[in-house]
Amino acid sequence: MHVHIVAVAGTGMGALAGLLSQMGHRVTGSDIAFYPPMGPALEHWGIQCMPGFDPAHLDTEPDLVVIGNMCRRDNPEAVAAFERGLRVTHIAGALRELVLAGSSPLVIAGTHGKTTTTALAAFLLDAAGRMPGFLIGGIPIDFGTSARPLPSLPSSLPIAAGLQRQRPFVIEGDEYDTAFFEKTAKFLHYGAEVAVITSIEHDHIDIYPDFVKYLDAFAQFIAGIPETGLIVARAADPHVVELVLRHGRAAVAWYALQGEPTHGQSPHWLAAPLPSNSEGTSFDLYAGGVYAGRYISHLAGDYNIGNAIAALAAVAQGYGVPLGDLRVALPRFRGVMRRQQLLGTPGGVAVIDDFAHHPTAVSMTLRGLRERFRNGKLVAVFEPRSATACRKIHQEAYAEAFAAADTILLAPIGRTNVPADDRLDLARLVAELRKLGKDAAEYPSVTEIVSELLSRVVSGDAIVVMSNGDFGGIHKLLLDALENRAA
Which residues of the chain are under the pLDDT cut of 50? Predict the structure, then answer.
């Protein structure tokens, strides 16, 4: 089948393209730009990449056109696809039709931690010989690809309750909408049998203008998990607890870290964190109130311990994998590109790339890295680029989010279409950070940020660059500048 993907270079759409290509389909795709890491990955997968949006890209009359959710109604290729009567769907529809049949989907949902938890669950299942398929909104370092199809011959796997599941397909459950022609959350289409819900906090305000609508998407997702399924839910999140208790039909496995509030729920999976260091974190795990051993993860921060517990619980309780196998596998997981990814240490300065953009994610990332890099300055370089980050809805929260950083450098807002009265006020944010004793400033360009960093950092310091976009190629510019300085 010839599948053409409009707006192919996003993390999710690019992963779909790679997956379909591996399944033997001919895949072409168009987009305005092909930035790393997804651009090079598409080339590696053999995807024919077409720059720009042009009806001529459809002259070969593909069997199926998949339209990304960043496309508007006036997108030239989308308009042409409908006018020519081509078969059209969105990413969730393509996955449901072409990928998920014959599998038992494990869907990882939540405002934060989806990508890392999805990658870890897939890694653990793979290490245990369960041969999962997966689709992840990022590129796991261990797999080197964001998507992999199921083997051609699915098998049944016994679980503790005596039920049977097909081979697992692990998928990142995005609550963002599907496409302009069907405004429903992606994760509602995946038919989850086992689900993880890591957190619920208002996000994607361009799609969910108020929190009630955001909560409703998760309520529908929870209600759709069958009675024979399993919900792995974070007991420390009050919104997760409320929605699971109100709408859930499946069995629930609560998880938490020791000392967290659990809102009246007794955790089936409990981790007691131990002191972390530059190598990562470790924790004692209790399953059903019974000590299950000491576990080691190379990911930094307590929130990554939470991600690890969620993945362990889903794989062990949902698919019957022995905990002993998972305990051995966990330390081998190396993480995901753009999630606390160490790009290099030129001149002794650690340069880290991270996707964090919501204030909670910024805070969790910086706290985790503060534990990992204790001896030097921790410098945060932040580009507000997402629809949520560019708006003032989290103005106060951002000031607190940078608490673990010593120095904060702010780039210009990445979206020009946000009304002035709704826009994040960077000057105010700088003033608030300075009142908190932080060294903070805003800069008009990537070039000036790199120049400023060179004048500030020394060996032993760590720079974390946070953006959900390319950030003007700052990563390579910074690495090259630091290397030249060291030379």
Answer: 154, 158-161
Strands 182-185, 177-179: parallel, antiparallel or unpaired by DSSP? antiparallel
Contact 170, 193 (CB under 8 A): no
Q: Assign residue 282 a region: left if phi > 0, alpha if psi is -120 to 50, beta otherwise?
A: beta
426, 442 in Cβ contact below 8 A?
yes
Digit-coded pLDDT (tens) for 7-64: 999 878 988 998 999 999 999 999 999 987 778 889 988 999 999 999 999 999 999 9
Task: Give, in degrees to the nearest 5, the angle at Cα 115 between 226 and 47.
Answer: 100
Q: What is the DSSP string of 19-88?
A: HHHHTT-EEEEEES---TTHHHHHHHTT-EEEES--GGGGTT--SEEEE-TT--TT-HHHHHHHHTT--E
SS3 302: helix
Q: How far apart are CA 65 and CA 5, in angstroms?
A: 6
Cα–Cα distance measured from residue 193 to residue 105, given in angstroms and rounded to the nearest whole number: 6
Q: Annotate 221-260 with DSSP letters as a single string.
A: HHHTS-TTSEEEEETT-HHHHHHHHHH--SEEEEEEETTS
Closest CA to 109 of 249, 12, 231: 231
| Residue among 435, 267, 298, 300 at smallest CA distance from 374 | 300
Q: Is the pTM of this model over 0.85?
A: no
Using DSSP's 3-state secondary structure scheme, residue 482 falls into helix
Q: Which domains does the chain have, with CATH numbers?
A: 2-90 (3.40.50.720), 100-332 (3.40.1190.10), 341-486 (3.90.190.20)
Give the C-alpha separation, 91 to 96, whole Å: 9
Helices marked H in 260-322 — which ranges?
302-319
Neighbours of 410 (CB within 10 A): 23
Buried b (16+ CB within 10 A) or exposed e, 147-183: bbbbeeebeebebeeeeebbbbbbbbbbbbbbbbeee
Residues 315 and 160 sit within 8 Å (Cβ to Cβ)? no
Q: What is the rounded CA–CA span in Å between residue 461 and residue 405?
A: 11
The length of the chain is 487
End-to-end CA distance of the chain: 52
Dist CA 379 CA 450 (whole Å): 12
